[in-house]
Amino acid sequence: MTMRALIAGVLAVLCGGTVAVVVFQTTPAAAERRGHDPLVIAHRGASALRPEHTLLSYETAIALGADYIEPDLVSTKDHVLVARHENEISGTTDVAARPEFASRRATKTIDGRPVTGWFTEDFTLAELKTLRAKERVPDLRPGNTAFDGLAEIPTFEEVVRLARRHGVGVYPETKHPSYFDSIGLSLEEPLLDVLERHRVRKAYIQSFETANLRELSGRTRLPLIQLITYGGAPYDWVAAGNGRTYDDMVTPEGLREVARYADGIGVDTRRVIPVGPDGRLQQPTTLVADAHRRRLDVHVWTVRNENSQLPADHRLGDPASPVYGRATGDVAGWLSRLLDAGVDGAFCDDPGIGRAVVARRSVSRGE
Question: Which of 146, 275, 293, 338 is deepest in the core (most CB within 10 A)?
Answer without folding.
Answer: 338
